[in-house]
Amino acid sequence: MFVASRLTLQLTGIADGVGELLSVSFGSSVVDGAGNVAVATAQTLTFAGEM
Amino acid sequence: MSVDVAASAVKDSAGQFAAQAVKTASLNDKQPPTFTVTFFPSNNTARVAFSEIVSNAAGGAVAKADFAVTISGGVATLADFSVAKVRLPCCVGPHACISALEDQACLTGVVVLRLQVASTVYTLTLSVSGIADGSETVSLDVASSAIKDAAGLFAQQNAASGTLIEKVKPTFSLTRVSKTVVTITFSEPVSGSGAAGAIVDADATVTITSAPTLTLDSFSLTPQSSTVVTYVSTAACGAA
Question: Cα(A16)–Cα(A18) distance, rounded to whole angstroms?
Fold first, then answer.
């Protein structure tokens, strides 16, 4: 079974990277080795400025 | 067991031989009941199957006090458990079960279809407190001199043990790496719906929610680190 614990999320289309609120969530297809579905709650990240 | 005198072997004082006549008798049961235990991946069900019909020490129904169940290690604990006799299907034939009666004759109208065989299987429902992290050991045994067969022979204690299945849901966090790159870190390795369990874009929902003038055209997910592991599926161990 192919398993990963870290992913890179590549975004396109954000104009300036300032003030955007990014929201990420996963569906029931994402599970651990015991079959437990990842938490459904979305995680958010506010882009504070240029990097 | 069958017993007979040998031909012309036993005689009385008048010299008359005893006639041969086979006498039979059944040997008394000297085998105590044995049992096997199956733990289900739900973590809250165990099934105990005895080798024969059993009762408690007083001849009544087997109950909670006749079993010893413990959970040790890890995080989750055993709050309580209950015992229920498994109901066997009432069958017309080998594949036509019509109802579930316990230790009773199966009836349709006045016609006895087949006498129900008494169940020898018990389900223990475990009330587990806390979320199991997979390091808990569950142990199940019969209590001492608690469960016996019809001959009064008690089941010998023979503890069975298993491990609770981890029930902790994976969590994840976001870390911005650059203007358009974010790292997603899970609390443990996870798999998705892609080939060989890879996490693919379809597994995620990504949105930009706070800037109406800015839009997210697309996104892509790429594993940063990965490994190939094999684990046992827990989905096929029963419906409990």
Answer: 5
Does A21 reach chain B within 8 Å, measured CB to CB?
yes
Gap between the Cα atoms of B124 and B160, Å rounded: 13
CB within 8 Å: B205 and A26: yes
pLDDT digits (tens, 9 = 90+) for B53-106: 999 999 999 999 999 999 999 999 999 999 999 876 555 554 445 555 444 445
Taking the C-alpha atoms of residue B137 and residue B142, their distance in angstroms, rounded to an integer, is: 17
Query: B139 with B69: CB under 8 angstroms?
Result: yes
Specify whether the CB–CB gap between B193 and A16 falls below 8 A.
Answer: no
Amino acid identity for residue B4 in this structure: D
| Neighbour count for residue B168 (Cβ, 10 Å) | 15
Q: Which residue of B has its CA nearest to A50?
A: B179
CA distance A31 to B189: 9
Domains of chain B and CATH, by start:
35-163 (2.60.40), 169-229 (no CATH)
pLDDT tens digits for B203-233?
Answer: 999 887 765 555 666 777 777 654 333 333 2
Q: Does B84 touch chain A (CB under 8 A)?
A: no
* Per-residue pLDDT tens over the stretch A1-51: 667 788 888 887 766 656 778 889 999 999 999 999 999 999 998 877 655
Chain B residues inside the 8 Å CB shell of A5: 185-190, 225
Among chain A residues, the shortest Cα distance to B229 is held by A1
Q: How many Cβ atoms sit within 10 Å of the Cβ of residue B75?
A: 16
| Mean pLDDT, all residues of chain B | 82
pTM above the 0.90 mark? no
